[in-house]
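Re: [ENG-882] Designed sequences occasionally contain unexpected residues at chain ends

Forwarding the minimal case from QA. Structure tokens:
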């Protein structure tokens, strides 16, 4: 069993009193140094075709499909049909790798309890003997990497708690901007909602004010909508980043790979690049993404609910998964989602030169219109990356190299007790340059810890990104006492080396070290 903490106290253990939660945001996930960056001119599209009973349809050919990129027909240059093992057969016992992703930042306590109960039922009786399951969360408590340890999994599920993202009302702003309201008003997609917010703003702000106060409120509401969408957009982009890390982790796991998002939905708006990156990684890593709407049965589905669950639905359709919506049977829904589709297809086509824009896709059948086609709804045509490596590529190259760097002051202490290895990293914040933005002092640290065996091969790794946006008082404390980060690994007896790489973003400086450790 490998314990991972993804956020909150996470890899980062800041031992300074008075640090507000929004001053330090940290996200972490398993790390593999062997990432592959390939410039490919092939767009892959995972497709599932279902009949009226919801059963997967097999034995279709490439000629049965039509793919349109921006309404232009494309030539299918790659085609394959994939069949799941039949239940009860010897192949049916193939180990699955299942990641359960709890959206504890958007789900309320009641909805989260239903999702947790469904997860417990799956772990207790819905797994095959060799299945491995991982418990991941968006922003909080302890999580567990892929393992067959049912006790550890149940303990991790029990520890999941709701950490709801507050609306603008929590900041004393009237009217209250939800993520949907901020997006819809700033993008001009819901005028009725905008007018309601303007009415609320007049009621809040114009009591006893001058006669021109009501006329100023539309401009104020529009400005606030843009301001709060920037905040909510950053939160959603971080959420997508965590999902991307989990997909990358699953892509290295054995057997059929399934990611299930247990979420009431979240707003992704115009974050097309982030969404497309997740779908590309899932398709290339043969990861099936499914989703269960944790909100359960809804008697009155409104426009905002459809927008909030758009990514859940499109990610499922794009990768051959399913989106279970509008039901209180969370246990039954989760059981369906962790089953491998009986039949699915992979189509590929070569588009034109990448233009850096979002391309809507449409996949259909030339005949048999009674069938339902589930496929990705678009992709982001990323332009070729410049020859100069980006930050993550430089980190990856440094991790696998033998290079030792001391561009920033980072101290590594390694402690072994039994089969547990604890790695503590101390960074001298007084030697880091912080940049002031919006009244806060900002910096970003990326910490990668990789356990290597005696031959230098990686055994297990973790990466954490720490975003700092601190007050002057907190910064003074950091500079006086430093920043402390800690993580741990459970390993078999043997000789190991700890490869630690730390990067700071403001000046793009790094430290890299190797420390031997003996596990008894």
């Amino acid at each position: 069993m490998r314990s991972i903490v993804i956020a909150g106290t996470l890899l980062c253990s800041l031992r300074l009193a008075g640090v507000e939660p929004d001053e330090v945001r940290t996200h972490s996930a398993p790390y593999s140094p062997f990432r592959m960056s390939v410039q490919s001119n092939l767009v892959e599209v995972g497709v599932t075709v279902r009949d009226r009973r919801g059963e997967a349809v097999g034995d279709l050919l490439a000629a049965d499909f039509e793919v349109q990129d921006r309404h232009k027909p494309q030539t299918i240059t790659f085609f394959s049909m994939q069949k799941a093992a039949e239940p009860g057969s010897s192949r049916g016992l193939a180990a699955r790798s299942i990641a359960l992703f709890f959206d504890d930042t958007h789900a309320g306590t009641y909805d989260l309890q239903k999702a947790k109960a469904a997860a417990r039922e799956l772990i207790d009786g819905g797994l095959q003997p060799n299945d491995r399951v991982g418990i991941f969360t968006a922003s909080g408590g302890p999580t567990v990497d892929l393992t067959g340890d049912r006790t550890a999994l149940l303990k991790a599920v029990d520890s999941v708690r709701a950490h709801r993202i507050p609306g603008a009302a929590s900041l004393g702003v009237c009217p209250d901007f939800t993520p949907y309201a901020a997006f819809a008003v700033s993008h001009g997609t819901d005028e009725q909602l905008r007018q309601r917010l303007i009415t609320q703003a007049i009621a809040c702000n114009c009591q006893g004010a001058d006669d021109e106060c009501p006329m100023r409120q539309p401009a104020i509401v529009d400005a606030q909508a843009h301001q709060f969408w920037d905040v909510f957009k950053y939160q959603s982009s971080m959420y997508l980043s965590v999902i991307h890390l989990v997909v990358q982790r699953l892509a290295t796991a054995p057997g059929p790979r399934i990611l299930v998002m247990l979420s009431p939905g979240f707003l992704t708006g115009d974050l097309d690049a982030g969404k497309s990156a997740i779908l590309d990684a899932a398709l290339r890593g043969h990861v099936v993404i499914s989703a269960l709407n944790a909100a359960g049965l809804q008697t009155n589905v409104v426009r905002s609910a459809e927008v909030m669950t758009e990514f859940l639905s499109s990610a499922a359709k794009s990768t051959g998964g399913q989106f279970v919506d509008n039901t209180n049977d969370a246990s039954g829904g989760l059981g369906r989602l962790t089953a491998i589709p009986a039949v699915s297809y992979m189509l590929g086509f070569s588009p034109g030169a990448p233009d850096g824009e979002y391309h809507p896709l449409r996949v259909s059948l030339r005949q048999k219109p009674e069938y339902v086609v589930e496929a990705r709804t678009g992709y982001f045509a990323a332009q070729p990356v410049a020859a100069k490596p980006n930050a993550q590529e430089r980190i990856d190259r440094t991790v696998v190299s033998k290079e030792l760097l001391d561009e920033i002051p980072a101290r590594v202490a390694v402690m072994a007790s039994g089969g547990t290895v604890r790695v503590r990293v101390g960074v001298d914040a007084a030697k880091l340059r912080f940049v002031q933005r919006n009244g806060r002092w900002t910096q970003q640290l990326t910490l990668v810890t990789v356990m290597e065996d005696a031959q230098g091969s990686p055994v297990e790794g973790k990466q954490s990104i720490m975003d700092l946006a601190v007050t002057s008082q907190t910064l003074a404390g950091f500079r006086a006492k430093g920043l402390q980060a800690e993580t741990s690994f459970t390993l078999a007896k043997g000789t190991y080396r700890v490869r630690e790489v730390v990067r700071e973003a403001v000046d793009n400086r790094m430290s890299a070290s190797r420390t031997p450790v003996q596990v008894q």
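QA comment: On inspection the terminal residues look reasonable. The chain has a mean pLDDT of 82. Proposing we downgrade this to a documentation issue.
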